[in-house]
Records
---
Amino acid sequence: MSLLKSLDGVLHKTFCRIALLLPKKPRQASGEVLIIRPGGMGDLTCADIALNELGLDSTHFTWLIETRSKSWAEYRGLPHLCYDLDPFKTLSQVWNRYDLVINTEQFFGLAEAYALLSATKTGRIASFQANRGSRWSDIIAPYDWRDEHETIAFARLFVQALELSHDEKKRPSRNRLHPPSTPPLVLIAGRQSPSRRLSLEAWVALIAQWHRERPFLIAASPEDAEFADQIASSFTGLARRFTGSFPDLCRQISTSEEIFTMDGGAVHIASFFGVPTLALFTSGRDRKWLPLGQGSRILRRSDLACQPCTKFGQVPPCPNQYACLQIENLAPTEATPSTVRSENRI
């Protein structure tokens, strides 16, 4: 996937032109809509939230996604195909089928080639202006890659594509879907990304400042299970490890008193359920991906001119040795406003 991204600037033009040249037989309009959502689970969840905020049922659309976000699609019952699971079979299933294709990819143009292949001869395509292939779309929505929350951007694209009447929100916020009935939850995340690979000592220090003597649960992916066990052992009598399936975890998040996690997919799952969240941001853009549950907060350094550095979800090589991760001095007695900023954004 990283190779395709690096070659996207060259390949997307060729593939889009090939898609336009391929003959398509006219077919009767069916009203079917395809939403193309490559990327991770976080973006898929944000798109799901955007439709929910518009009062639309996400299960009424077909989704073309990556395998890594399949868990959320299955949990939510979204009709979906994974284009990276069996590419040729998937292409045959979407070829010349949809009257409307909504390409939610913010930047990479190869997604537009897939949209051109999926649309019928008279079908329409909607995309973000920032997408490299947007010149081939019929409907183009503006996109702010710097500061606008992603759910607002997705909602705007859906409104224009589906020709809806809707007052655009400026400050997103979500009420809880379920009342709190379970302890606070720490979600260990981000460790597979160098810019979010917080040390064990930093996690322990931050949790010690956060939990306020409350018993809490710790959840992690299988890759981070041992790491989570090490954290739990630092809070004997307070921390308990959560184990269960992805649907179990979603249900746990939905009823948790509060969530503490790293910027990423877990933040957006908590946002879907409107659960208050303390989200730690390093390289990521807090204004674009902040948690939406009422009472949520963010935590990040406020003394770095290079932060945030992420652009279109991509983190550039860091010349500063990931200074945004250097927060081990956040023990409760040492944390100061000049080092770390904790603020309400909702």
---
Amino acid sequence: MTRTNFKPLAPASSLDLALESLAKNNPESALRRAVPALGDSDTQAPAADLCARALRMLGEDELARRAFKRAVGLLIERALVPHAVAAALALREMGEGDDDVRAIARAFGADAPEGGAIRPPSLAHSKLDPLDKKLTRDELVARARAAIDALPSPSGLGTRPRYPLWSALPEDAFVRFTAALGVRILPEADALVREGDPGESAFILARGEVRVVRGAGDETEDLAALGPGAIVGEMALVTDAPRAASVFAAHAALVLEAPRAALDQAAAEVPELGAQIVAFFHKRLVDNTVRTSALLSALPLNERDGLAALFETRAFDAGTTLIAEGDETPGLYLIAAGLFAVSRVEGEESLRLATLGPGMCVGEIGLVLRRPATASVIAETPGVALVLPGRRFMEVVRGRPTLLAKLYELAVQREDETRSILAVPAEEIEEVLL
């Protein structure tokens, strides 16, 4: 699952290379890269976690526990919440209790003191000289022990940033949420998710960078570059729709995985946790749809959120008919997830006109031009859409002339495209659509 034509955004840092070594099961190489970073105040917090992981792989469990403990405290101090959780989960796997997770919850959960805005974490792209390759395993461990013992004690948080989802959870819900998470290390250029694949997990980036891309081959479109704290693949938790894009590691990445089955179980045990997860991912779905919708791009940013609140969120099973040809159009649909086929009956044949996916809209022709639906729209896969019911359509767009103009332009354009397709002989339609 590696992207062969992948080019990283920036040169790999010492910690990127250490994490890559861990991904390739080479703990000695990881220590050579990570130990020097323990002496740098900008890198020592994540470096402590990476050293601990390398030491654990080498069987140095006692020293690894000490390093993980120091890592949790330093990562809390730097407000690197997902990475702190990853370190605390490693301690839990080694037989420790929930004390470290609870420390994170007290610093950043719902009951934490009010704090400042989130500060973007440093990715620490500095390149430090690695330790000599001639050092033996035991010498590497000795160097790591000395550097870990020399780490400063955490001095406490200057501010306590509020984080989406994490900061909405009371302490017990925070602890139960983390218990549902797993930890993965993704090598550079490997895919975290693949466009079109079914999704069973969401992911929280703890360390590293990922690229979000759509399409294949020469048609690949880069959608975003994301860093620590980013959440990807969350649509898998609210719908069975296939993945709408692929996510690749720009450099090796440390990732928290949230499987849907594990979160469902946690939500059943702690209803408050379930309510917060549903609210968070519903807001993410709406925000992402509003941000990627070509239709809403015509509106000023300050108007989009208010408009999105007027839409209803609906899920559709594969095979569900959203709009039936010849009937009154029931509403305007902004597609959030899934694929939807647009078809029209001509004579005795059903002609496929288009396939619509996330970010697209449908229903504008019938609503704007005031006529029965000119085509049917059917869910090809499970999907989710934001729906503005037809009965509310005019009252919403009447006071938004920019939106109405955009809808009219889109309706006319699609009508012209449909006429062009229908004017082509049936045997050539497939070639035109391609």
